[in-house]
Design a protein that fits this description.
Helix content is 0%, strand content 53%. The chain contains no helices and 11 strands. The strands form 2 sheets. Strands 2, 4, 5, 6, 9, 10 and 11 form a 7-stranded mixed β-sheet that branches. A 4-stranded antiparallel β-sheet has the order 1-3-8-7, with no helix packed on it. A hairpin with a 5-residue loop joins strand 5 and strand 6. The radius of gyration is 13 Å and the shape is globular. The relative contact order is 0.32. The model has no long low-confidence stretch (mean pLDDT 96).
């Protein structure tokens, strides 16, 4: 059974940084594209970053230049480094595992990130 467990999150002031790790189990991590999505209150869930098995990353325009997604295949872990945080980054952040064409395999339970102005 696939399990994705996010840790980290919390409160941070605008302009600050947070790093979100997500530990994966129950899958062949090296064969899976990993991503981070977020959902703010009253809004749809959006995909903010993905990293392929080859280490190629892509980002939503809203986070480009501020967020960095990386993966450590030895630890079955994906990270989201968030810098220059803004109040509009406030959301529940979800780790996700995806097929090569981004079809979803599994979601984590989510972790809250709150950015105060």
């Amino acid at each position: 059974q696939v399990q994705l467990v996010e840790i980290g999150g919390g409160f941070v002031q605008a302009g600050g940084s947070l790093r979100l790790p997500c530990a994966a189990s129950g899958l062949i991590f090296t064969a899976i594209t990993m991503g981070w999505s977020r959902q703010a209150p009253g809004k749809q869930r959006e995909l903010v970053a993905v990293v392929t098995t080859g280490g190629i990353s892509n980002y939503a325009d809203s986070v480009k230049g501020r967020f960095t997604i990386t993966r450590d295949d030895a630890k079955n872990t994906v990270y989201l480094q968030m810098n220059s945080l803004k109040p509009e980054d406030t959301a529940v952040y979800y780790c996700n595992a995806r097929h090569e064409r981004l079809e979803i395999i599994s979601w984590g339970r989510g972790t809250q990130v709150t950015v105060s102005s």
